Amino acid sequence: MNPLFVFSSILIVVCTTSVRSKSPVSPFTAASGKYVSSYDHLDVGHLLKNDKLVTAYIKCFMDEGPCTKEGKQVKNTLLPDIISTVCSKCSQKQRNMARQVLTNIYQKRRSDFERIMEKYDADDKYDEIITFMNESEPETES
């Protein structure tokens, strides 16, 4: 499995489609309008320990490095959607995963977090994302 796709899917499955009606249908959304659970089993903590992988994703998302096909899909649909909806289409497990990824980037790579938010936060959801990151993590459904 492509690690960029895995991280992208989590990033911010981490939760996951396109919220704007003019946007193309996302490959990450189920018929229910919620994000698919295909990657819910991933160990986000393990992936976040790989600095090279995290750097590659950030470069992809910021148009500073190459992206795989999946990375482009995440960059163009998933990431903006998760930020603009504050993960409203996520299952509880996906919300917990998104929270873990966002918090990790915020704490360990603050300047990258700020740049990502500046680029993808067209709806000015910064404060809501910070609140989301600080929510407690309820148990996840199986």
TrEMBL record:
A Pfam cross-reference name: OS-D
Record bears the keyword Signal: yes
Signal peptide: 1-21
Superkingdom in the source lineage: Eukaryota
Matching Gene3D superfamilies: Insect odorant-binding protein A10/Ejaculatory bulb-specific protein 3
Database matches in InterPro entries: A10/PebIII, OS_D_A10/PebIII_sf
Keywords carried by this UniProt record: Signal
The keyword S-adenosyl-L-methionine belongs to this UniProt entry's keyword annotation: no
Name of the protein in its database record: Chemosensory protein 8
Protein's organism: Daktulosphaira vitifoliae (Grape phylloxera)
